[in-house]
Amino acid sequence: MSEELVATLCATTGPAEVDASSLNASSKFNFTLGAALGAGATSCVHAVEKPLEEGRFAAKFFRPDKGKQPAALQREVQILAKLPTSAYIVNFHGYYSTKVEATSVLQRNLRRDSNASTVAVPEEEEHGVFFFILMDRCDCTLYSLIQKTAFSEPEACFATEALLQGVTHLHNLRLVHRDIKDLNIMVADAGRKVCLGDFDLATSIPEKDTLIEWKGGTPGYMAPEVWSKGRGGFKADIFGVGVVLHVLLTRSNPFHPDEVSKPGNSGPLSYDIVRLFRSESSCELLYSLLAEDPELRPSAQEALDFSWLLGEEVVKSNLCKHVVKLGFASEDEGHEQTERPNGSRSLALWRRKGPEAGTKSPGVSGSSFFRTVSRTMRTARSILPFARRHSKIVPVPDLKEVDFDDVCLP
């Protein structure tokens, strides 16, 4: 059920602040709390409905920290204040406080321990003050799409380039995200935009340092040096990008949950298996990003210069058809995809390469070709047992462990 709340401005966050006219007030505004969009260990995200009609907004509420402003909120706001506006970073519009009734579903959710199934709100407490960050509302996360569909290589290329652009933006400011994963990558503009969000763990690296103490992260996405030594630098973020790329290409995480990111254990799939259904150039980038030695990984800017991302072999394709088909955006929003070939808010690359970059190359095979290859490979493996290859991959959470062919082949 929607709730009517009043938000009080605490602070804006640098260049990406909301125009007061769009909020109908300079320091306070009324809004209707919409549906829950997601939840994590330190926060939950809800849609923000009318009267904010000038844009689509979401509110990220932080779980209380013993009556004080949550530490996660303070860390995130400090990072957001340093971030210039970018098409590859979720836009934030200041942080606010609001009073929530004790009977509110939102308050019960926020006061619930992440490991507990129930929570008791003190009867004498009539309301609680909670803090939230106002940000652009996206259609869904990359994780949500991966759970429901498989990406083609052009679509994986589109999403990877956008992610690397966002990481480059951070690294140029000497900031590291420290929790790059598909759940923290947002899809917006009906699939024409992919951007990085959730800066709970982000921090800066001083000019004089190359490595910092690395606290937190997500098993399966953490770099080997972080897992073994608790220290990392910019290249640790790059490893996370590599895991996301692996998930995009194979719909599976390259590491077993019990052996995540440990050097020498349960490494990613061999070249031979990925080469069966993905291009050589995509494999080249993938295994560079996942190099165990951080010195062998490219920087985010260097990764953008790999041939796979430059459109020399693959013509990038946005994610509109998946976002619209799965109901994350309306069909009317998705119709515009033919007018903007490589994303509505990242046209610099398109302009640099010329309008022909948005058209399909005669050398790019269609879906019928991939279906033919898939059937041929399946037949060959069933006839020739020695050619049958079983991987050690573990699918992303909530997917049953299935045969590699059934998950990965186009």
Describe this protein with a few key phrases.
410 residues, Phosphorylase Kinase, domain 1, Transferase(Phosphotransferase), domain 1, 2 domains, 6-stranded antiparallel β-barrel, 3-stranded antiparallel β-sheet, 15 helices, 19% strand, globular
Concise account of the structure shown:
The protein is α+β, with helices and mostly antiparallel strands. The chain is 31% helix and 19% strand.
Set out the fold topology:
Blueprint: E1 3-11, H1 20-23, E2 28-39, E3 43-49, E4 57-62, H2 71-80, E5 92-101, H3 105-111, E6 127-136, E7 140-141, H4 142-148, H5 153-172, E8 175-176, E9 185-188, E10 193-196, E11 203-204, E12 212-213, H6 224-229, E13 231-232, H7 234-250, E14 252-253, H8 271-274, H9 280-289, H10 300-303, H11 320-325, H12 331-334, H13 348-353, H14 367-383, E15 394-395, H15 404-408
Antiparallel strand pairs: 1-2, 1-5, 2-3, 3-4, 4-6, 5-6, 7-9, 8-11, 9-10, 12-13, 14-15
Helix pairs in contact: 5-7, 7-9
